[in-house]
């Protein structure tokens, strides 16, 4: 692990927190050659399985960042639920609506990797790209002026940067220091215990569900793909005292299932939480941006929190890169809050609805339909296009055009122009061009794909394209 002495540093971007959000942003900035440093208060990466489910859209992000193969090797698909009563299997429970990969969405199924493993993979990629994490560097406050922002560490040291991103989780010290409010509600007043354990005598082919009975609430024991561990989740009545010790975990498992306490052979990590849904009033205060759980906290139901967090980082990375390299005006950074805050609000409503049983884990939870049609960065120059056709602002689907796989062409920090069934603009191309005939949901037209995989500009002719590219320092 690359550990950097933060006492002497003056950098482009300071990222506070080496969780999934901070590490994703670190990777994206490192591959863009942007000077950045991740400051982490703890002495090591988070050790628990917590956010274990990836939605298809997040796997597409990880494909672009070069870690999708590592995540595939480290995890597996979600197992089918198995409901138990009195030590007997009484039936299967299908948690997700069926989905499968297709040409335009190759990762279309929920994929499980325990959060600690994901963070290891992200940190390894960051180190490979030359990025650094400074552990035991807790940020206690921030101040800012016209030129930059200073992070004040608990140690008394100060670190200076042009921009700072608060990726320091739901209790964000940076958000509090800025005085940015968080508005929300308790989704469920009942506390839930979560633990990573080793268990004897339970198969790894099923997510074992022990429904509430005799006054005891739900217990679920899920095999964690790619490990020998299981994730235990046990819900308690409102106001109950949750005992987060190894014995507390063994007791609740033995009380609510046929598994004996001694068959829980190891308890590797334990925590508890009360599901909340809350959204930061702003995602930006001057030179400081809030991302991930620092900006929105969800119920874990429906697996939206980590996924939305990773996509915040992915939205912000290319914008910080373009501004710091002088390719785009600083105003581009305003589009981060404009684009991401409404999406976070939608995802909060969705996870609360899944938690309350009002919505199934289906289409919307996969996050493939998220887009930025109303963004000030989106320009659609065509009139009517078909109902299901790709428009400016939409996610750019995969596919193969004239032998070129689109996700291969998109992979990397650049923009890409698709010229499908129409002529590409003449002259020196400012961005790589993929040419071919009409294709899938794109149909025909020119589609300029942003570095984060959304169509920024679409047209039938190149008119206006040069001006649009110029906004990002890309004119040919
Ligand atoms: C039981 C459970 C199950 C979940 N399941 C899912 C799921 O299936 N899918 C999903 O999408 N999401 C899930 N989530 C949510 C997911 O875990 C979070 O959304 C995710 O961890 C957010 O990442 P983050 O990087 O923003 O914050 P965190 O993971 O909280 O990381 C913040 C980091 O900042 C560090 N830090 C904090 N304060 C400071 C400071 N002052 N200075 C320096 N460093 C600091 C912390 O040590 C930590 O490393 C689940 C959550 C829980 C509790």
The number of distinct helices, counting runs of at least 4 residues, comes to 10
Query: Which regions contain 5 or more consecutive residues with pLDDT less than 50?
Result: 1-8
Corresponding CATH superfamily of the largest domain: FAD/NAD(P)-binding domain
Radius of gyration: 23 Å
What ligands can be seen in this structure? Answer: flavin-adenine dinucleotide
Q: Share of helix among residues? A: 10-25%
| Number of β-strand runs | 28
**CATH top level class name of the largest domain:** Alpha Beta
CATH-defined fold name of the largest domain: FAD/NAD(P)-binding domain
Q: Report strand %.
A: 25-35%
- Tell me the structural class: alpha+beta
CATH architecture of the largest domain: 3-Layer(bba) Sandwich
- Main sheet summary: 8 strands, mixed
General shape: globular
> pLDDT average, as an integer?
93
Cα distance spanning the termini:
40 Å
């Amino acid at each position: 692990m690359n550990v950097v002495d933060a006492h002497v540093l003056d950098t482009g971007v300071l990222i506070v927190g080496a969780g999934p959000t901070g590490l994703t942003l670190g990777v994206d900035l490192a591959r863009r050659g942007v000077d950045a440093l991740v400051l982490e208060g703890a002495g090591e990466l988070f050790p628990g399985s917590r956010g274990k489910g990836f939605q298809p859209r997040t796997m597409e992000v990880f494909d672009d960042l070069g870690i999708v193969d590592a995540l595939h090797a480290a995890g597996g698909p979600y197992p089918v639920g198995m409901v138990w009563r009195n030590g007997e299997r009484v039936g299967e429970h299908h948690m997700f609506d069926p989905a499968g990969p297709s040409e335009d969405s190759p990762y279309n199924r929920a994929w499980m990797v325990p959060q600690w493993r994901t963070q290891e993979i992200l940190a390894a990629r960051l180190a490979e790209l030359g990025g650094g994490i400074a552990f035991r560097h807790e940020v206690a406050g921030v101040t800012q002026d016209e030129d930059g922002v200073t992070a004040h560490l608990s140690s008394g040291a100060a670190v200076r940067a042009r921009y700072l991103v608060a990726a320091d989780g739901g209790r964000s010290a940076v958000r509090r220091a800025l005085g940015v409010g968080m508005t929300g509600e308790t989704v469920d007043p009942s506390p839930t215990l979560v633990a990573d354990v080793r268990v004897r005598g339970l198969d790894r082919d099923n997510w074992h569900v022990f429904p509430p009975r005799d006054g005891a609430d739900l217990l679920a024991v899920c095999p964690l793909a790619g490990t020998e561990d299981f994730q235990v989740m046990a819900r308690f009545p409102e106001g109950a005292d949750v005992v987060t010790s190894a014995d507390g975990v063994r007791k609740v498992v033995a009380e609510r299932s046929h598994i004996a306490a001694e068959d829980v052979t190891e308890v590797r990590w334990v925590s508890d939480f009360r599901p909340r849904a809350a959204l930061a009033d702003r995602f930006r205060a001057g030179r400081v941006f809030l991302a991930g759980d620092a900006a929105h906290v969800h119920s874990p139901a429906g697996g939206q929190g980590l996924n939305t967090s990773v996509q915040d980082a992915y939205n912000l990375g290319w914008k910080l890169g373009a501004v710091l390299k002088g390719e785009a005006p600083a105003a581009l950074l305003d589009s981060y809050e404009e684009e991401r805050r409404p999406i976070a609000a939608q995802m909060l409503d969705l996870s609360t609805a899944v938690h309350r049983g009002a919505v199934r884990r289906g289409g919307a939870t996969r996050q493939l339909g998220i887009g930025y049609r109303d963004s000030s960065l989106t320009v659609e120059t065509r009139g009517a296009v078909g109902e299901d056709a790709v428009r400016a602002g939409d996610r750019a689907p995969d596919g193969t055009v004239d032998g070129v796989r689109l996700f291969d062409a998109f992979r990397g920090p650049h923009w890409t122009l698709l010229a499908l069934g129409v002529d590409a603009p003449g002259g020196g191309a400012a961005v790589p061009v993929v040419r071919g005939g009409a294709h899938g949901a794109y149909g025909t037209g020119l589609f300029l794909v942003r570095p984060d995989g959304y169509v920024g500009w679409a047209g039938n002719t190149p008119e206006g394209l040069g001006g649009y590219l110029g906004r990002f320092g890309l004119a040919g």
